[in-house]
Amino acid sequence: MAKSKKNRQKDFQKVKLKVGKKLPKGDNVTNLSFKTRQIKLTQRIKVDDGQKPVTRNKLSLQDLLRQCDHHSSTARVNAVCGLKEMWTTHYNELMVCTNVHGYGVILKKLANMLIDNEAVVRHSVINLFKMMLQKLSANRNDTGCSVLGGNLFTHIHAYMCCAMNHVHEDIKLDALLLFDCLLETFPTLMIQQTGDLLKNLVGLISAPSYLGSKGDSTTQKLSLNPDSKLPAMKFRTRVLLRMKRIFQEALNDNTKQTLESGSADKTFKQGTWSLFSDNPNSKNDTSLTTAQAANKFSLLFFGGSLELDDYITKPSSLKAFLNLSIPVLLQCWKEARASIDEHTSSDNLVSADSLEVMSLVMCVIQHMFVLCLSSQRRNVNSPSEFFPTVDPELLVKNYLTDFEKLFMNKFPYSVQVLPVVGKKRKRSKSNQTVQSDPSQSSLLALNLAVCDIMASFCADRKLKPKIEWMKKVKDYIVNFFRRSPGVEQSKILIRILKNVFSNSHVVAHFVQALKSAMKHYKSLTTKVPQKYLFFKLFSHIGQHWDGWETETQGPQPRCRYEHNADLCNLVKEFYQSLPELLLHVKQLEDNKVWLMEILTLLRHGNGLKIRRLYGDTFHEKLSEILDPQSGIMCTNDEEIQQQMCFLLSFSAPLTRELLVQMLCLIRRPQEKPVLPHRKSWSLVSHSIYNIIQNMKKNLPLSDQVLFNKITPEQRVVLSDYLRFLFSLQIGFIAEELNTICPESKKPSSKVWYSVDYTVQGDQWERHADIANIVAKELSTFYIPADTSHGFDTFSFIGTLEQLWKKMLKSRERIHILSACSLIVFLHQASLAHCVLKPSLEFYTQASVVVASVLSSLFSLDKSSEQSPREEVVWGLKSVVTKCLNNDSPLLNLVLTHLTERSQGSHSAKDWEKKAAQTAYDFLLSDEAIHERVKSKNDGENEMDTS
């Protein structure tokens, strides 16, 4: 307490306060406030243990996946960049099947981020998606392990559908980018496992329409978003473009499978979009995914999409998608047409903005109709029966009337070109290339798609469409051929012509279009792919056209046509061009399929008895076709050679020059002739049989009356055939024979022949087969006698005797091939089924040849002649023994010659005597010959005794 009053007043002085002022704090109050500083660690530095792949910042895959869920967009972008770095640097480790944290975990996390609110995050995710999918697509054959499990594509599919149904338009557009990436890298999966993707694409431009209590959730109407950054038409264009691409990939995959399979039956077993029923018990609604095609993506992505709805890979689903999408597409068409200026002078003018939408709408409907009319095999027991997936009558009933009103009213369409205001037109220089207008290509695609869709209705063979729109389509096609269509445009034109040809009520109205197609086909070269495409078209027409005056063979076509002279001439023109086409295709690489199809068509013409269509042209080109240097036979494919040889049996009579070419094909060069010869199958024998068949078909060899009325020209042809067969027998043509075995100036009356054993390559085995074939055909052929007209039995044996006598008469040397053929001929003539036998004079001369051959085989002097090969020696011994066993007169003559030779007749040398005696003993070593000789000697002894 203060001692004084003054100090006491100072301590307890009253503080005067003003209004609005706060009380000051006391001096003895403790200030409890404090400040801190925060340190944020977004990344953790770890020590690399060398076991797991990490980034440059020592972040593992688990760390990066956790950061993908961070609340900060910057952290999420950095995490995606880290995953990109991880993928590029440690690609091989992430692809190991036994690695738990592989690329499947990365793709699942990226799929979750497709609906991220930040655009920078989504773009980073899509870029990494593209990089990974492209790498996986390039190396899908190296990774076939699925032990890690997980339905990865189901996960990706679910989040992509969520993104496509998102509220924000940017997320929808980014989902379309991922859709494009999957369709580009793994089209097989996308076209097989479409799931809800197609329905979501339709949902992007439409929404269900509810009409009170009578509303139907399947009824669709076009949707309009006023907050959209893109105009409605442009947004629909992007969506329609994706629908077009997925259907286009489906059609391309179907075409690829057809070309690789090579036949219709294989196509329906392997084709992804062939839409046939694998299970015969469920014909109407069967999943069409084959095991091989499904594993392409499911093995790679550890499971695939087996739980997804195989949308439009079922016939019922395809019908449902038609009912869902076509009304929406027609509304898009009407909206695009409504945007056209109402003051235009012509209603068929289309603005550039509307043209793109209209073209895409028509292309989508076009592709769907092509898939609807794809063939489906219903009956496994009868593979030739094919039916469309969606009944054409159903398409006609549901869509023909609407399509006629909407599409054909102002067809064909033209693009509206607006002049540029305020700018001068620049003159195009002569050396500058003029770029094509994109709108023109869209316009062509629009008009062609309209033609294709309307022609698809003609697949209903009961349909009798209106002539008005058929005339419009026909006129447009005729004019389009003047533009020199490309490959894709040619495919559409061919499909249109095939559809109209299948309907007998329509084909007569499109004859002019078919003529234009034929003119365009003949103007193309074989090097351009359009040539083969149009060849397939006319091949189809030629095989199914039944308007011939002659009767057809085989199963009847599905529909009958009235006889149309113009169409008949068109098919004749195509058949007549085949021989020349055959020569041009021969010059191409990888031409086997095309060559086989041409040869099959030529055989088809023969089966229909219409050889007159191409008989003259084929025979005119036959010299070039059979050219031993550059003809069709020079190919290494035996199947083509076989078909070509078979056609010879149907052609006109072969001239001498053509027969000489066949001799060269069969025998030259000696080391490796053009026509191969094998024990299992011999093109040599096949060609000989077909030439003999040609002879019997073109010459009157059926009865004596016709044969005796043979014309001089036919006699020449017959002579040429016999000389050809005789040349095959002796193994050489006349010039070669005179060189090897020259004629002697002073021939003796009874000569002992020297034998030439020069044989190259497989010449011996080839000639043994030839000798058997020719000897059998010539010795067994005969025309029975006609006693009513006084005609005796005719055979070729007499003619062959004269040819052999002429060949042997003036020669002292014979080749082993000729000697072998003579022995084989004698054996065939000695058989019981041979009606006429050779004369005794011919037997006497031929026995000298047989004795000479036997003696030469056992000759002790090897200095003057080449030593025969072992297979030749054994073959000759077998042939001679077989011949002499069945022919006693010939055996007696041969033994007589060998006996005289062994006794020194004809100035024989010592080694020649020993060779003859050895040959004699060789014959007697055979039991059958020994018994025959013994019985003969016993009979002679009995006669002498008596």
Summarize the structure in words:
With 946 residues, the chain is mainly alpha-helical. Strands 1-2 form a two-stranded antiparallel sheet.
Summarize the structure.
The chain contains 39 helices and 10 strands. The chain is mostly helical. The strands form 5 sheets. It has a two-stranded antiparallel ribbon with strand order 1-2.
Quick tags:
39 helices, two-stranded parallel ribbon, single chain, mainly alpha, 946 residues
What value does the Rg take, in angstroms? 45 Å
**pLDDT average, as an integer?**
77
Low-confidence stretches: 141-150, 210-218, 258-311, 377-385, 428-435, 549-556
Oligomer: single chain
What level of helicity do the residues show? 55-70%
Q: Count the strands?
A: 10
